[in-house]
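REVIEWER CHECKLIST
Item 1: Sequence provided? yes
Item 2: Single chain? yes
Item 3: Sequence as submitted:
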Amino acid sequence: MDNSILLEKFTVIGINHHLADLATRERFSMVAGQQRSLLEDVRGHGIKGAMVISTCNRTELFATTSDAELLSILFVKHASGSLAEFQEFGFIKHGEHAIRHVYRVAVGLEAQILGDLQIIKQVKEAYRASIDANMCDAVLHRLMQSVSRAHKRSRNETTLGVGAASTAYAAVQMAKQYFGSLSGKNILLVGAGKIGKVTCKNLVSSGASKVTIINRNFGKAERLGSRFAVNVALMKNIDIEIAKADLVIVATGALHAVINTGHMDLCDPDGSPKLMIDLSVPRNISSEVSDLDFVHLINMDMLSDTLDETFRERKANIPLVENILDEEFTAFCTWMKELKVVPTIKALNNKFDSIRKQELARFRHKINEDTIADVDHLTQRIVNKIIAHSIEHLRENRDNTEEVTRILQEMYKISGE
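Item 4: Structure as written out by the authors:
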């Protein structure tokens, strides 16, 4: 059976860093509540499987349907961007291309930072959210098992993940390149969430010793500060901490800027240049801050890992990873082909069992009551062996499944619905 026919009811649509700039991606980013509402809306239109993959660089909707137009309308409905923007900067993939895209995203081949370690966690979060929303059908569940296995193999069988690749890692590497060394530099980290924790770890392991953490939840900042033996400060003192800092890294889940030009009033405009890195989408540092002469502002679109010494090694592993994805994709397609014949097998089993019971009922009065159970068991074993031969034949002819199932259905007058 042609894979294009087998997989035709799979579609992925979305906005990502390949086609859309940061400002556009911001308008299509969705918080957890928006993602849940989108999944509920998709379910309301009769689609049984869907998930929303959301990262700093992408918002994508994958679903078991071929109706890309419907998905596009629903996607835009729950985002802040317009349909016109989506049509200009978004993408749509169908069938095999949609499936392969999910694999590539999960292992980090589509990431801004090649082999990004954080991506698989975000894909698994999307999977769990799909389950919670009752939008994970058997097919999507099987696919995500395969995707998870592909990611694990890409880490165990290749060195794609070498260098602790992540946006947080790239940010710290860029800061090291900018300053030459982080030793002795005053560093302010705003945000103690998932990205904040990874950033703090990378800062400390890169030689930074004068780090201060600020978080809206002070207790969270204290716990992270204690873990890495760095300082913490109150959010109300953010202006003071910015003024003291050589490097400011912001990574919060806020939906608006937490640093704007008003927070820069205490800074010395004639002092040393200040590097500010925004790891958030939507942006947490106002773009107007970049107009200040003493500030060099870096956002997500400016991050790159190509200067990292491990990049070439990771890049060399791409063909190896793609081979793994091919193997897992092929295994998934094989499962899909076998799944397609399940209704026929069930119908065949019901047909044979019905004939068995009818014949057994006809001769029941001629059989000693003590041997009825034995005869019933014997005839059941005969039917099971016949069914087993049929299943084996279907598996051996999986590339011609439709023709074989059609013959079985016509021969025994059964339906594969």
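Item 5: Key structural point noted by reviewer: The domain at 167-304 is CATH 3.40.50.720 (Rossmann fold).
Item 6: Recommendation: ____
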